[in-house]
Amino acid sequence: MSTNHAQRERAKLCDLFDEVGPEVETLCDGWDTRDLAAHLVVRERRPDAALGILARPFERHGEKVRTEYAGKDWGELVAMVRSGPPTLSPFGVPKIDELANTMEYFIHHEDVRRPLGRGPRDLDRAFEDALWGAMGRVSKLFLRGAPARVELSTPDGRIIAGGSGELVTVRGPVGELALFLYGRQQHAQVDLDGPDAAIESVRTASFGV
User: Fold this and answer.
1) Is the pLDDT at 155 greater than 70, yes or no?
2) Does the predicted model carry a pTM greater than 0.90?
3) Secondary structure (DSSP) of 29-92
4) 54-71 burial, b for 16+ CB within 10 Å, e for fewer?
5) Domain spans, the chain
C-alpha cells in the first residue's frame, strides 16, 4: 500500500467527485463540489491566483480565476485534480506534496463526505501520525485568536494552543480533532470538557489563518 497519504486522499476525493457530480453541497460555505474542485486546481496550478487564498489584496483576482476553472466541463475539472500539479509546481515535489497536501485533501475529502451523511473513517496509524504532525505544526497559528486555551487530546498525546484564560479540552480520534482544528467544529465528532461558556465560545469560533 502506498505511504503517500496525500496521493491516496486525492484519489479518494476524485473518486467521490465522480460518484456525486458537480452540484453537491460541501462543508465549505457557499461552495458545491464544482467550486471545491476548482479551488484545488487553482491552488496547485495558478500561484498568481492562489495568493488570493491567503492575501486579501489578491482575493478578487483569485476568485475570478477560480470561477473560470469552475466553468470547465466537470469531467475535465476532476481529471485536473486527479492528475495533480504540473511538473514545475512546488506541489509536484513529493516531499512538499506530502507536507502540504495530506491535510488539505483529508479535510476537503471530509467536506464532501459529511453532508452525504458519511461519518468518521477508520484511519490507519501512519495516516493518523501524519495528520497529528500537521496539526502540531499549525495549531498555534490556527488557534492564536481562540477565545480560550484549547487542548486537543488523544490517548497518545495532546496539543495545547490558543488564547489565555480557561482551558477547553477536545477529545476524539485524530481525524475528528483535525476537522475541529480546521474550523469544522460543528461536524467533528468529539467530546469537549471545560466551563460551559468557554466550550460554546470555542465551538463557534473561527479558526485558521
Assistant:
1) yes
2) yes
3) TT-BHHHHHHHHHHHHH-HHHHHHHH-GGGHHHHHHHHHHHHTS-HHHHHHHHHH-S-TTSGGG
4) eeeeeeeebeebbeebbe
5) 5-116, 136-203
